[in-house]
Design a protein that fits this description.
The structure holds two protein chains of two kinds. Chain A is of the alpha+beta class. Chain A has a single domain, classed as Nuclear Transport Factor 2, Chain: A, CATH 3.10.450. Chain A is built from three helices and six strands. Chain A is elongated, with a radius of gyration of 30 Å. The relative contact order of chain A is 0.16. Chain B folds into two domains: about 80 residues, no CATH class; about 140 residues, Immunoglobulin-like, CATH 2.60.40.10. Chain B starts with a helix and ends in a 20-residue tail after the last strand. The chains are: A alpha+beta, B alpha+beta. Strand 6 of chain A pairs antiparallel with strand 1 of chain B.
Chain lengths: ~170, ~270
């Protein structure tokens, strides 16, 4: 009789343990930081660094066709496709650019700290660069604006920022 | 600085990166740095609402349809395109073209001849018109009439081109309302302005022979000239502008000796 009562008690206890085991809260996932940037300033600084490095690479490429790094290594997506197309057209037409362009300003416009997408407004001064044709003649458009404002979008890729798109800004002077 | 999760998010999120970022570039055109440096990305000049010569198309020749001149749209600044590899003016839509500055002087022959019939929508202002004494005249004495009109420049659009039309008064035709008219080069001068006493004959005065109310008016003849931006070009003929009717009550004047003023005797003769 006592044994049966003990058995019953044990059974209840076991059931209670099992029940409580089922109801026990699942272990919480360890929180991991997915934010790419800690602040907008950090995001804009990274974007500006990449953009300036890209223009430096473009300038170096104007002087030396084998310069390193390859400017297109800064590009991805739409910007890369557009640049490949433009480079092909320039070659087909025998057009080339000589001289340098200078970054006048890079201003942060928008940053998604979590994803890492950054948009900056840039101002580029190309008054020291000329467009040449096959024969080396200057065919720079006479109405060219020497300074052009552009919206540049950058995305993080492999731990570095890449330029994803470049768009001229209508009616913007800089 | 970058986790694998972030990379996946970036790659999937960016192509559809709508929201404020792509809105900000809604008024922009895709470009490359090489196009910007070559002056082929001047978005400011392509976004004028008139033309759609997207910068990219200027390089790749997809939209060279509005080739030389762009004269089909008169409000659009004419554009000359040339092929950078040859320097020749583009004349076929499939050529790769760069834009070049418009020649400084507009071509005179490009504008159509203008006739008076084309100027119907341009109306010179109505001349000013007055008589002396105001509203009255005296039988067999000069009634003075004065008209005034000035040269006017009226901007507008003519035959599809922006234009300034200039009207210069050259003659005044007075209609005195009794069947007599006078055409003169001057609009006349008021008695006070010329220092003359009242009822002095002037270049534009008229003598009515009988009592009555006469409806007078003046018609101003303007010569017209048009300027499409290439200088003034005269238009044959004159444009006229007529004033409204100006009634003149012509009375006889009789003298009489009276004992009292009208204030003293309101029922007296002539009161």
């Amino acid at each position: 009789m006592i044994l049966r009562a003990t058995t019953a008690t044990l059974g209840l206890a076991a059931a209670a343990v099992m029940l409580s085991g089922c109801l026990a809260p699942a272990p919480e996932p360890t929180p991991t930081s997915t934010a790419v940037f800690a602040s907008e300033d950090e995001a804009f600084a990274a974007a500006e660094e990449t953009y300036r490095a890209y223009i430096d690479a473009e300038n170096a490429r104007s002087a030396d066709p084998t310069s390193d790094p390859e400017p297109q290594s800064f590009l991805v997506g739409e910007a890369l496709e557009a640049d490949i197309d433009a480079r092909r057209e320039f070659q087909k037409r025998g057009m080339s650019i000589v001289g340098t362009s200078a970054v006048v300003s890079v201003t942060g416009t928008a940053a998604d700290l979590t994803v890492g997408d950054v948009t900056v407004t840039t101002c580029l001064d190309s008054s020291l660069s000329r467009v040449l044709n096959d024969a080396g003649e200057d065919i720079t458009p006479t109405d060219r604006d020497s300074t052009v404002a552009a919206t540049v979008k950058l995305v993080p890729l492999d731990g570095e920022m890449r330029i994803a798109s470049i768009a001229g800004i209508a009616s913007a002077s800089c | 600085m970058l986790s694998a999760v972030a990379v996946v998010l970036a790659l999937t999120a960016f192509p559809a990166m709508g929201g404020p970022v792509s809105q900000a570039s809604a008024a922009a055109e895709a470009c490359t740095i090489s196009m910007i440096r070559a002056g082929l990305c001047d978005a400011a000049t392509v976004n004028n609402g008139e033309s759609v010569d997207v910068a990219a198309n200027r390089v790749f020749g997809e939209d060279a349809g509005e080739a030389v001149g762009g004269a089909t749209d008169p409000t659009h600044t004419p554009t000359v395109w040339y092929a950078p590899d040859t320097g020749n003016i583009c004349d076929t839509p499939d050529r790769v073209c760069l834009r070049q500055d418009v020649p400084a002087e507009p071509v005179d022959a490009g504008f159509p001849a203008v006739t008076l019939a084309d100027l119907v929508s341009f109306r010179p202002a109505m001349p000013q018109f007055a008589g002396e004494p105001a509203g009255f005249g005296v039988v067999r004495m000069p009634t003075n009439f004065v008209a005034a009109a000035t040269a006017q420049d009226i901007p507008g659009v003519l035959l599809g081109y922006p234009v300034t039309v200039r009207f210069v008064p050259v003659a005044y035709v007075f209609d005195y309302g009794d069947g007599r008219t006078l055409r003169t080069a001057t609009g006349g001068v008021a008695w006070a302005a010329s220092g003359s006493p009242q009822f002095t004959p002037t270049d534009t005065s008229h003598v009515y022979q009988a009592r009555g109310t006469y409806v007078s008016s003046v018609t101003t003849e303007y010569s017209a000239a048009v300027d499409f931006g290439a200088g003034w070009r005269p238009v044959d003929g004159v444009v006229t502008a007529r004033t409204g009717d100006y009634p003149v009550q012509v009375v006889e004047v009789r003298t009489a000796l009276v004992a009292h003023t009208c204030a003293e005797d309101p029922h007296g003769p002539g009161c």
